[in-house]
Amino acid sequence: ETGVTQTPRHLVMGMTNKKSLKCEQHLGHNAMYWYKQSAKKPLELMFVYNFKEQTENNSVPSRFSPECPNSSHLFLHLHTLQPEDSALYLCASSQEQGNQETQYFGPGTRLLVL
Amino acid sequence: GQNIDQPTEMTATEGAIVQINCTYQTSGFNGLFWYQQHAGEAPTFLSYNVLDGLEEKGRFSSFLSRSKGYSYLLLKELQMKDSASYLCAVRDSNYQLIWGAGTKLIIKP
């Protein structure tokens, strides 16, 4: 299944670095999501875009900055991260936000902040 | 608050049957999902229940009781490749997905 791709798959960065995560979906969907997955914790929804408009921002620190230039692409810009931000960052897409749409996930970016 | 509970880890034997339970307390209900996630990979959709009862899909079945706030995922004829984490998620009244922490299933020969 290559409907949702993410790059890079692994990333190590220092607390002063700036990096970006990229997500692309090839499913013709209109909603895209960023999640944080930490070990033994539930998935945490970070941001939601529906038809390129941000519709959810779940109290995410400003050191995480999303960008959605079109319905197929989603970025997560990272700067001055903290070690506790180390986690798996998952991108997902669905036909639209809401209703009973199934979300389809990318493989994630494993981030380590030193 | 909203909460999804599922066991942290379960162990089962190849060829056997295992049932993974999920209980939920959410503000409203608009469906329950089960996802499978192999280590280092994307969660993949397994099943969706919105009405009470059993949904069967090959070796996997999912059951829902809305009055009890309860679901289970039943895996039959277990194979080694079924070793993975199984995530339960409920869509609430605002159509937000509320996720459980996942159940790590270990299959032994």
Topology (SSEs and partners):
The complex is a heterodimer of chains A (114) and B (109).
Chain A: E1 4-7, E2 10-13, E3 18-25, E4 31-37, E5 44-50, E6 53-57, E7 64-70, E8 73-79, E9 87-94, E10 104-105, E11 109-113
Chain B: E1 3-5, E2 9-13, E3 18-25, E4 32-37, E5 44-49, E6 53-57, E7 60-65, E8 70-75, E9 84-91, E10 97-99, E11 103-108
Parallel strand pairs in B: 2-11
Antiparallel strand pairs in B: 1-3, 3-8, 4-5, 4-9, 6-7, 7-8, 9-10, 9-11
Protein described:
- The complex is a heterodimer of chains A (114) and B (109).
- With 114 residues, chain A is mainly beta.
- In chain A, 0% of the residues lie in helices and 56% in strands.
- Chain A contains no helices and 11 strands.
- In chain A, the strands form 2 sheets. In chain A, strands 2, 4, 5, 6, 9, 10 and 11 form a 7-stranded mixed sheet that branches. In chain A, strands 1-3-8-7 form a 4-stranded antiparallel sheet, with no helix packed on it.
- The radius of gyration of chain A is 13 Å and the shape is globular.
- By secondary structure, chain B is mostly beta strands.
- Chain B is built from no helices and 11 strands.
- Chain B has strands at 3-5, 9-13, 18-25, 32-37, 44-49, 53-57, 60-65, 70-75, 84-91, 97-99, 103-108.
- The radius of gyration of chain B is 13 Å and the shape is globular.
- The chains are: A mainly beta (114), B mainly beta (109).
- Chains A and B meet through strand 10 of A and strand 5, strand 9 and strand 10 of B.
**Could you tell me the strand content of chain A as a percent range?**
over 45%
Gyration radius of chain B, rounded: 13 Å
In percent, how helical is the residue content of chain A? under 10%
Number of helices of chain A: 0
Labels describing this entry:
heterodimer, A: 114 residues, mainly beta, seven-stranded mixed beta sheet, four-stranded antiparallel beta sheet, 0% helix, B: 109 residues, five-stranded antiparallel beta sheet, 11 strands, 57% strand, globular
